[in-house]
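The passage that follows is intended for readers who have already worked through the single-chain material. We present the inputs for a multi-component assembly, then the predicted structure in tokenized form, and finally a short commentary. You are encouraged to pause after the input and sketch how you expect the pieces to fit together before reading on.
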Amino acid sequence: MNARHAEAAARFIQNKAQEEWHNETLFLVREKRDRQAASLPEWEQLRQLASQIKMHTITHLDNYLEQFADRAEANGAIVHWAKDAHEHNEIIYALLRERQVEKLVKSKSMLTEECRLNPYLISKGIEVVESDLGERILQLMNKPPSHIVMPAIHLKRQEVGKLFEEKLQTEKGNSDPAYLAHAARLHLRNEFLTAGAALTGANFGVAATGDVVVCTNEGNADMGASFPKLHIVSMGIEKVTPDYKTLSVFIRLLARSATGQPATAYTSHYRKPRKGCEMHIVLVDNGRSDIIGHADHIQTLKCIRCAACMNTCPVYRRSGGYSYTCFIPGPIGVNLGMLKSPGEYSGNVSACSLCYSCNNVCPAKIDLADQIYKWRQQLDSLGKADRTKKLLSGGLRYLFARPALYNTALRLAPIINKTPRFLIYNNLNAWGKGRELPVFAKESFAHMWKKGKIKQHP
Amino acid sequence: MAYSKFGLFVPCYVNALYPEAGVATWRLLEYLGAGAEYPAGQTCCGQPMANAGFEREAEPLLRQFDRLFALYDFIITPSASCAAFVKEHLDGMNGRLYEICEYLHDVAKVETLPGKFPHKVSIHNSCHGVRKLHLSSASEQMEPRYSKLKKLLSMVEGIEVAEPACVDECCGFGGMFSIEEPAVSVCMGQDKLKNHLATGAEYITGADSSCLMHLQGIARREKMPARFIHISQILAAGL
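Having made your guess, compare it with the prediction:
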């Protein structure tokens, strides 16, 4: 079923207090991003560079991936290639099974969300523990992330307090953030110590050195990579970057764009396994190489998953991550969903007023809004066009292509101003939900011009 | 200077709902000595259909537009959004098609205006005006701050100019977005109105009557004390 964003959004907005708080919280993040961006005189140059580096890398991906894999293996890591989500999950499960691992501790990874790794491993009897605080909260609630950087941004601390009372036996009624974070730390510390393997995502892979670079604020990726004997990295193939010089451009942009910090608390480079331990890197395609051939949408591969487009999106802020059906919400998610499966995700394409703010904040200069515009042009041929909009578009074109008819219609239009309300404000009138109709002028400009009334003006 | 022929493009909804913006634009051009003609047979440029996903319905209208204005050296319009759409979809429009403020500021380079408007106004920085026509700097972009609208308005005697918080956030109109996503659209509009009214302005003004129409619809429904006026009408005050 192709769920419609508009309906889910309307439900989110019904809780006005929640909507206002969500909107304001994320706009504060946008403003923090603005302040950080403004502090670098070369900000716009960095964005331009990032865009160029990404386009270069994506269009020379075979070279850089081979280089990355060679270097990583020379360093002592083992590289696996997964053509899709299923292969990715199987590779990881095999690694765990062969080593009799019963518990996997994870740091944040949108790729494993994409591959639906957790349910797969759980179905095989593996215990999976998320170690990013937001992700862990959601895992305890059995909910997906609603934002890709701040996964539990839609929750208030009181809700977290309640959850922890039940799951981590914290004090009743205590929702002090420091207290709750401390409780989570103690709980997670034990998970790190008892897990048989750790999985991290990868923000970047450096082709020249074979480094996997992971940016976190909680240090949880480092805890994972430092305790268990097995470290698995899930990395999308588009995450590779040529060298340290190019990496530095992204590192300067990422945290500033994402959370308005000059840098994340931890920027960790994992290059080789610890003594007596193993490091495995799973490079995942899962549709990415198909996007390279998609001239209109290749730019989505430049995404560094900072979520700046979500934080600025006036629609996302007022509708929440769960109103989108794709696991990545907001402008980038609308596009990635359509690339994955138009049939499944076309209900998100309406979630855009074409304000173009996303294009302007994107640190890699992805033309997000232009792409949404292009997807809209495809909806009708996919059989997914909104019926009202289709009728209206055809009807308006009919009228507008016939100036004489249009002018006659306009002469009659002011009648609507006097029509009884019940005829106009009913369920058929989406405009009338929350808005009065505009008032037609007594005389149109065209009519006044024809009668010579405009030029008569002294 | 060689004689230039000016054509006035009055978008469909301005024609039907806000003809006074068309009149004011014409008067501003008269004032500059650029007697503009209004080619008969104008309707719509096709933007609403194209943004909704029906570019093919827009194409005949764009061709109609091209034909009607073929003989004009300059095409001036009181709508930033329509100007941006036509520029993106028809060849030969750069350097020819201008939104009225853009024309006054960039081409005619007016330094003074004769009118008075002794009121406080809040500028509505429309998305396409800001992010496509660059009528003002975009809040997301790290570039020197400027506003052509503010500069023009400040030439009018007695005016006090303010801008809302979230200075160029979308008002939620978005053409058919407003009817496909009515809940979000109205919510965005309510927030925008609140920010405008918080400035203490008597009028909300801007280069796109479509945004103002949406905000006006909400203000009337909620009986909020907001008044709206297209920027060309303020700039043409006293003409």
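Commentary: Residues 107 and 131 of chain A are 5 Å apart (CA to CA). Chain A touches chain B through 75 residues (CB under 8 Å). How closely did your sketch match?
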